[in-house]
Specification:
It is built from one helix and 26 strands. It is mostly beta strands. It has three domains: 85 residues, Immunoglobulin-like (Sandwich), CATH 2.60.40; 84 residues, Immunoglobulin-like, CATH 2.60.40.10; 93 residues, Sandwich (Immunoglobulin-like). The strands form six sheets. Strands 2, 4, 5, 7, 8 and 9 form a six-stranded mixed beta sheet that branches. β7 and β8 form a beta hairpin. The chain starts with a helix and ends with a strand.
Length: 320
């Protein structure tokens, strides 16, 4: 092959690689696109304080930039929200007043024009269409303590709040309340179990919808799992060793196991060759570094963070 043909071949290869690479990193420019705002509508007026902002999804957008201001963007009283979200919706509770909101598409280095809507939340003592915004604990929280601080946002027009805690779901056995408080926080003491807690805002003439969340209290350490294989003084014929164990039935939160494999019986940090959390599995395959004598044990952990003690240490050999 002469030099000219060789240079042509090399150039063609670079062109093909370049085209392939460009395809991999190509991003759609959204600069000239615009978001369609769906709710709240422009110039909308409502006494409802729990606002759900919705706009049309766009497959070219990686994220959406949402901004909400009190007043207008021309004359901002203050910024309420300036956030990046991946879903075309956002929920926020606001106090009465005039507002403006806008959304822009973001894709890589490009950003679209803003789309704007104005709306008004009217003063009203009627809070029947509203509900308090719960802050903590988060929904479906699993907590390893019995004293729990409940928090929620103040609802405009409410003079007090009714707290209820039910066993399992909102229709379950009432275990606390109804309790009326005029603050937006309350500390309660609960025993281990699954609950639904809720807050209803009230004033002299009406009450809001209930805002509810589920909660699990788990303060009990799980029983340690039992090692099965490798068994005590067993010989393994491969550096790839399959570990297995069984768990005791547990009525608390979901369990995981940490498996420890060491070259010494005292499990010094420098001698540990495996230290893995195995989630919900009861087995693990480890690649050990060399032939020799090893020791392994387990520690069981539940979703709330409670931990068992260590299982009895098992000695085995890798010898082949």
């Amino acid at each position: 092959m002469n030099k000219s043909a060789l240079y042509t071949l090399i150039f063609s290869a670079f062109v093909l690689i370049g085209i392939s690479g460009c395809e991999d990193i190509f991003e759609i420019d959204v600069t000239d696109q615009k978001v369609e705002l769906l709710s709240p509508l422009d110039e909308w007026k409502t006494p409802k304080q729990n606002m759900l902002f919705v706009w049309s999804p766009n497959i070219d957008a990686q994220k959406y930039n949402l901004q909400i201001v009190k007043g207008s963007f021309a004359e901002v009283s203050y910024y309420i929200t300036d956030t990046l979200v991946t879903l075309p919706k956002f929920e926020k509770t606001l106090t009465p007043g005039n507002f403006e909101w806008r959304v822009a598409l973001i894709n890589g280095s490009s950003k679209s024009e803003w789309s704007y809507h104005k709306f008004t939340i009217e003063e009203s003592k009627d809070i029947t269409e509203n509900e308090p915004v719960l802050l903590q604990p988060t929904n479906q929280a699993i907590i390893a303590k019995k004293d729990i601080e409940l928090k929620w946002e103040e609802l405009e027009g409410a003079s007090e709040y009714r707290i209820e805690i039910h066993k399992n779901d909102w229709n379950g056995e009432l275990v606390l309340g109804p309790k009326m408080v005029d603050e937006i926080t309350e500390t309660v003491t609960l025993s281990d179990g699954e609950y639904t807690w809720g807050v209803i805002a009230e004033n002299s003439t009406n009450k809001s919808l209930p805002a509810t969340r589920t909660l699990t209290i788990d303060t009990t350490a799980p029983a340690v799992s039992s090692t099965v294989a490798p068994a005590e003084d067993s010989d393994q014929t491969s550096l790839s060793v399959v570990f297995s164990w069984t768990r005791v039935n547990d009525t608390g939160s979901a369990l995981s196991d940490s498996i420890f494999v060491s070259k010494t019986e005292d499990f010094k940090k420098t001698s540990i060759v495996v230290n893995e959390l195995t989630d919900n599995n009861t087995g693990y395959t480890a690649a050990l570094p060399a032939k020799g004598t090893y020791y392994w044990r387990l520690k069981t952990i539940d979703k709330a963070g409670n931990m068992s003690g260590y299982s009895p240490t098992v000695k085995f050999k890798v010898n082949f």
